[in-house]
Amino acid sequence: MKMGICAWSVPMDGPYGVKVASDYGFKGMQLDIGEPERGFQLSYSHVQKAYMQFAKEHDITFTAISVRLFDRYGMTRENGTPEKDMVLEGIEKAIQAAETMHIPIVMLGSFLDGEIKNDEDFNRTTECLVKACEMAEGKGIIIATENLLSIEENKKLFEVVDKENLKLYFDTQNYYLNRDYNAAEMVRELYDFICEVHVKDGIGHISGSLLGEGDSNFFETMEALKEKGYRGWVLIENYYDQKPLSNENENPLELLKKDVNILKKIM
User: Fold this and answer.
1) Element (H, E) at 266
2) Is the model's pTM score more than 0.85?
3) Which of these, 224, 250, 218, 249, lies nearest to 236 by C-alpha position?
4) Does the N terminus or the C terminus of the chain have fewer Cβ atoms within 10 A?
């Protein structure tokens, strides 16, 4: 496996965060397209160039681009609304940035505002995923869904979308935290769909604990990935400068260092 980190988990915003990640032993990083209020920052060529310059200097691979906007305005929004137009713009901007920066995955999450709770949410989300896959076709870009669906619901989603460039972005905590699902079992059943992995942990709170110190059965899930022969990117998504995890040490970089050591031992 290869070790990376999400840009929003590095306690340093902007391109300089790439250097920080490299200093702590990471080889990969997932970026975010940014906020619409600021023009989806990563869509700007000068921002892309800054990130690519730091990546080259510090030997970092950008593994994916996320559209984290969907936590506020989800793919579940009604068609024809300003919010849904913003969603579609975010997808388009992320795919364009991924193509320019040679990043292979665009991750589209279904959490908070975009959580799939009923058939209407499911239909609107799959419709968006189809559009995204079609935008990305021929560009060598994978569209990755990250969601809270069950094993069977995920299988149905892939059947409905029916696109070869749709994959699953797996997270070691989200399924247990939000649905009490066994993440290791989900790995075993959905492995063929998985393209990349987030790792974080906690007890009753997202990213509230160092890896393996929460209640998500982190080590069992990692063992399941190893059993399946996973050799891809594993990206830390703990929030070291946010409570409750930040209560453990006033220096978030010390917490980051501990998680790096934990992850290195089991990879």
Assistant:
1) helix 252-266
2) yes
3) 218
4) C
Q: Give the C-alpha separation, 19 to 15, whole Å.
A: 8
d(CA 176, CA 185): 11
Q: Which two tokens stand for residue 247?
A: 């209560």
The helix (run of H) or strand (run of E) holding residue 135 is helix 119-136
Decide: residue 26, CB within 10 A, 0-12 exposed, 13-18 middle, 19+ buried.
Answer: buried
Helices 151-161 and 183-190, packing angle to 10 deg? 30
Domain that holds residue 16: 2-266
Length of the chain: 267
Token pair for 181: 């699902």
CA 151 to the chain's CA centroid: 19
Residue 62 three-state SS: strand
Angle at 117 between CA 233 and CA 144, to 5 degrees: 25
pLDDT band at 176 (very low <50, low <70, confident <90, very high): very high
Q: What is the pLDDT of residues 142-161, one digit of tens each?
A: 999 999 999 999 999 999 99
DSSP 8-state class, residue 78: P
Given CA atoms 193, 27, 237, 138 in this order, what sign does their dihedral have? negative
Q: How far apart are CA 263 and CA 86, in angstroms?
A: 37
At 95, the pLDDT band (50, 70, 90 cuts) reads very high
Q: What is the pLDDT of residues 230-254, one digit of tens each?
A: 999 999 999 999 999 999 999 999 9
Contact, 187 vs 194, CB < 8 A? yes
What is the domain count for the chain? 1
CATH number for the domain spanning 233: value is 3.20.20.150
Contact criterion met (CB below 8 Å) for 216 and 201 = yes
Q: What pLDDT is attached to residue 204?
A: 94
